[in-house]
Design goal:
The protein is built from 5 helices and 19 strands. It has about 400 residues and is mainly beta. The protein folds into 2 domains: about 25-130, Sandwich (Immunoglobulin-like); about 150-385, no CATH class. A 5-stranded antiparallel sheet has the order 13-12-14-15-19, with no helix packed on it. Strands 6-5-8-9 form a 4-stranded antiparallel sheet, with no helix packed on it. A 3-stranded antiparallel sheet has the order 3-4-7, with no helix packed on it. About 35% of the residues are buried. Bound molecules: calcium ion (2 copies).
């Protein structure tokens, strides 16, 4: 009599299946071994970032995981479902212990195939959905409105743009009559977060998590309209204290306009002690060193902070305000006064002046205008990141 072990389905999910090598009596009555199929097992667990999964093979049998009841596993292949694949490099796969990071949110089917030493295979599949837990701040490239909510006639700034008040000036389509600020004033603007006029901000915490608008402590601000994530300055005397200032410095010739700038104000003015303009938080107070140090720390869960370019920096000013020209409910500790160094709240951008590589563009948060200055000046910096 011939009797086989139960044919195993592709996915072996029950640990209670009794697997035993059985004998097959050949026609001549001699006993030959029937090869038993190997066991494929797969468990995938998302990691904290949502896109990374860890994979082990201990789902079916905590002790054995992948195994062959009557032989050994000689090969394993795991298709991650996103066009990428893992193939075992050792002949005997005793344990699966893999991590894989998906490039984008989505639903993927993992398929694990194992081969035993007699050529039998087993396959198990598992479908899972991954979603980045960090803030999804893909830059939209959209422009913010100006923040200006008042209209004007030939002599007077008017609190509203009512035609009755504006008279003949009502037909000029003034700034406050158009755009996101006007929609916000009319209650017609849907925001993901909150913010003055047409601005739409969300407070972000230390791990990159979204916080309610009422949160008393936050480290970054997501601009829901432009998609940019901004550093929030501190007043704690530490690395990101708002009073620290930096010379413009970037030795990368492909982006520095042909002029690397200065590593420290001390390079320019001997009376300035090295490190003194950033509270001795850095060896040299320059824009690049500051960004590197913030990335080392991983602000709001990210390590790809950079000095904003001119266009990004110009998305911040709220021209309906001044001193500082920014929504202070989201961006406290913003420099704006004209101190002894006549900085007037000037924040560096990463953009060099096309016609003069020795200068770079900056934005004054006294009123929100931009200008350009020599890279040797000690100006403020607010870092930005934009997910690629
Ligand atoms: Ca076997
Ligand atoms: Ca407007």
């Amino acid at each position: 009599m011939t009797h086989f072990s139960p044919l195993l389905p592709h996915a072996i999910l029950a640990s209670t299946l009794l697997l035993a090598a059985c004998h097959d009596k050949g026609d001549d009555g001699s006993a030959t071994l029937v090869n038993e199929k190997p066991i494929a097992a797969l468990i995938a667990t998302p990691a904290a970032d949502g896109l990374t999964i860890t994979i082990t093979d201990k789902a079916v049998d905590a002790a054995k995981g992948i195994y062959d009841p009557d032989g050994r596993i000689v090969k394993a292949e795991l298709d991650y479902g996103d066009g990428q694949k893992y193939t075992s490099t050792t002949v005997l796969v005793s344990d699966l212990n893999l991590t894989h990071t998906y490039a984008a949110d989505g639903t993927y089917t993992l398929t694990l195939t194992v081969w035993d030493d007699d050529g039998a295979t087993a396959t198990v599949s598992k479908t899972l959905t991954v979603k980045a837990t960090k803030v999804d701040n893909v830059a939209t490239g959209l422009l913010n409105d100006t923040g200006i909510t008042f209209c004007a006639n030939d002599t007077t700034l008017l609190a509203d743009c009512a035609p009755a008040t504006l008279g003949l000036w009502a037909t000029l389509t003034q700034d406050a009559q158009k755009g996101r600020d006007a929609l916000a004033a009319q209650g017609k603007l849907t925001k993901a977060g909150a913010g003055n006029a047409g601005f739409d901000y969300t407070k972000i915490g230390v791990y990159g998590e979204k916080l309610p608008a009422t949160a008393a402590v936050w480290n970054c601000v997501l601009d829901n309209h432009t998609g940019l994530l901004w550093e929030v300055k501190t007043a704690d005397g530490g690395l990101r204290d708002w009073r620290h200032s930096y010379t413009w410095y970037n030795p990368d010739a492909t982006v520095n306009g042909g002029n690397a700038g200065y590593q420290d104000a001390h390079d320019v003015k001997a009376t300035v002690a090295a490190g003194s303009t950033c509270g001795n938080t850095l060896g040299q107070c320059n824009t690049l060193a500051f960004a590197a140090k913030v990335n080392e720390a991983g602000l709001c869960g990210h390590k790809d902070w950079q000095v904003p370019d001119q266009e990004q920096l110009l998305s911040l000013p709220d021209y309906g305000r001044s001193q500082p020209a920014i929504d202070t409910a989201y961006f406290p500790n913003t420099a704006y006064s004209c101190d002894a160094g006549w900085r007037c709240g000037a924040y560096w951008s990463s953009s060099s002046v096309a016609a003069n590589g020795g200068s770079a563009w900056d934005v004054y948060f006294t009123g929100g205008g931009d200008y350009f200055n020599g890279k040797q000046y000690d100006y403020y910096v607010r870092l930005v990141r934009t997910r690629q």
